[in-house]
Every structure is written in structure tokens, then in C-alpha cells.
Amino acid sequence: MLRAIVLGAGAGGGFPQWNSAGEGCRRARAGDPAARPRTQAGLAVSADGERWVLVNASPDLRQQIAATPALHPRPRPLRNSPIAAVILTGAEVDAIAGLLHLRERHAFDIYAAAATLAVLAANPIFRALDPQLVPRRPLPLDQAFDLCGIRVQAYPVPGKIPLFAEEDGQDPGLTEGEEALGLALSAGGGVLHYIPGCAMMTEALAARLDGADVLLFDGTLFTDEEMLRLGAGPKTGRRMGHMSMRESMAALAPLRIGRRIFTHINNTNPALLADSPERAELAAAGWEVAEDGMEILL
User: Which CATH architecture has domain 3-297?
Assistant: First the structure.
């Protein structure tokens, strides 16, 4: 059986974002129960409840571990952790920065595609993770393998290079290689797909997702021009490498998918508010909105 815990359901910056005075962020800071806070996106999965694999390592990882009893150290030895591995789906800051929280000489493996491993290698700060204890292993694409009793298959989805790798703010265009990955995860039961970033739907991706038992999918923005309209940023969702919820709902509507859950949700997205018309629209289309601590059993 696969047990999955949503460690964080927010996009970069979380919710509320530290420098945002948007309506949703104001309501979240005020403790409004309809505006529940989210940390930055991440997932933990286990087949046996003893060994856990993290999917991405957000800047909020220390807080997420503290909030998740399944990831706490066992009584003995003095220093230990059930975290056995981390899989990275890309090299954006909100996917890799949290690795630095895991630097206290605990042994685990990092799995990532070559492009992401190259980013880690090019940044000497990640040498804080002793390679003798924390080996970096190539993540095969479109080739399933077993990790801690979990069947893992990584595959490319349309995306873009990390923001910090763009040159002079020029649009690098979309790619479908190693920069953005989806994961199919199973442990003897159904299959869960985790795709925290996706710029567009393709026929090949739709065919892959058809029949999924659970889909955790990129829900960064509700509409493509949301941030432009609110004055929160100069880019569309597509320019940032993300489909809008509206696009995703339409593209995925014909597919046979069990649970449909949006994750990686930006602080500007009105669907974060439980009492919003947008949330009602999602519910009517059969979609859920992920929350920190949500558990899924397959």
C-alpha cells in the first residue's frame, strides 16, 4: 500500500507569501479558516510506514518535517530519520533549497535527472551534503525502478528551465526534457501521479494519465493572466511554465482519473479560498485543492 502525505501545497513563496498584501494572504494572516496557510509544495511517500521518500525539498522542509509525525526521528539511536531518499522533479529553488535542511550527517539518496544534478554540482553550497553519506543518483526517465518498496517511474512534462538559469530575462521557451518531470508512484495498489509543474497538455501526457487512480497536478494559477491582472507579476502562467486550472480542467475532463487534486497553488489563486466561486467551480468539475497534511492511501 502506498501512503502519501502532502507536505506542502503552495507554490513558491507559500501562502501567505511574505511580501504579499493580496486579499487571500491578508485573510490567511488573520487566521480566516477559509484561507488556510500552505507551505511550499512537497510530498512524502512510503510503502511500509518506516522508510519515507520525499518528492522535492522545499525551503519549508524543516517546518514540514516538524509538522509530520511520520517523518520524526525514532527513539533510538540519538540521531536518525526515516527519510531514506529524495526525488527531485526539477531544479527550481522551491524544489531544491530544502536539501540544505538535511545536512546534519544523515544518510539518504538524492535522485534527479542529469540537468538537475548539474545544477546541484554547479552550486558549491550543496557540498554541505557529504557525498559519502548523500550520494546523487541519476533518475532514469520512462524506466520504472523500485525505491524503498515503491515503484517509481519518472517522465518528462512540458516545462522550462529554472528561473535563475534564464539569461537577461529572455523567454527561454518551453522544453519537454529533463527540466520538469512527473512521477508515477505505486506500491502494490493504485497509481498516484505527481506533477507539480506542467506548462501544457500533450496527447502523450494525456494518454499516460488516463486511468490514474490519483492525480496531484499543477494548480499554480486559476487563469493564465492572473498575476498580470492583479499587478502581482509581469508574466503569464505559461511563461512561468504552468498551465492554469481552467486549462487543466478542460484538458483532463475526458480522462478516466479517480481523484483529481490541484497542488503547487500560488498565493494569488482565488481557489485557495474555500468560500470563493472559483473553489465551487473546481468542486463542480470534480477537483479537490490540496492542503498541507493531506493523506492519501492507495
Answer: 4-Layer Sandwich (3.60)
